[in-house]
Amino acid sequence: NPSFTVGSKSFTAVAINTASKAGEWIQSKLGDFNSLHTKYSSHDLVTEVDKGAEKMIRNLILTHFPHHSILGEEGVEPGPLASQQALEAMSDAEYLWIVDPLDGTTNFVHGFPFFSVSIALAHKGEVIVGVIYNPISNELFVAEKGKGAYVKGKRMQVSSEQKLSDSLIATGLPPDRNHALPINLNGVQALAPKVRNLRIAGSAALHMAYVAAGRLSGFWEIGLNSWDMAAGALLIMESGGTVTDTLGNPYSLGVRNVLASNGAVHEELRKELTAANAVGTL
Ligand code: 2AM
Ligand code: CA
Ligand code: CA
Ligand code: CA
Predict the structure, then answer these.
(1) Which Pfam families match (predicted)?
(2) Among 33, 37, 98, 193, which one is least packed by beta carbons within 10 Å?
(3) Which-ligand-closest: CA of 106?
(4) Same domain, yes or no: 231 and 136
């Protein structure tokens, strides 16, 4: 079993402290930032706040653990190939921090208050700590492998819905308009009439934290990256839920097309996505 500390320093305490500091800074910049750039297209935004938050997070982590590796969204060239290559290049690291400094940039830019900081720590490729912080609701979601998951100090458990027709399910609309988006829209079209309702709120990490907290019964999305999911996946598994890819293979850091649920509706969701040609091929 990996330890959660080096000397007296707790990995989890550093993850919590770092996510909180970055989140408070991001919140202070809401409606007060200048530079806005697009990465691939007008759908894919990045701001000085994304970059500043990542810098802050890197510095804080490296202050405590100078020999650890860090994979952060803003340190990687845009596009699916570069992000897969960056993950592979770092897969040898014993301790790898996986960071999305601001998940939900589009929401942040528009002042829609649903975004988060996501920080995970993997030991030899397995996520052992996951923290997601929503500065607007002041909710901190924390999981340690084998030790459960908590929001604001309260133990979380996934929802109890047994059928899709009783379930609130979330997804995302990926910015890749040519490939990932049409695949995901197949799923939206097929599932919308079958679930209680769908939510598309714009932060994959927060959607996953909500599955862990039992506020959503499931979530799927095509074309995500490791930093969107690493913390959320551990939160869900430690809350009693199930995380796979859209084909049903177990979660790992390399998963791009994710299916997460309370477990009970997992198979029903997977079948619907398969029937709708919405599992993706990335
Ligand atoms: P971001 O805000 O950190 O960029 C919404 O569907 C989700 O898609 C968000 O979690 C968003 O993360 C993510 N996302 C944004 N750009 C993306 C891209 N180019 N490829 C895949 N996912 C992306
Ligand atoms: Ca982004
Ligand atoms: Ca993200
Ligand atoms: Ca981001």
Answers:
(1) Inositol_P
(2) 193
(3) 1
(4) no
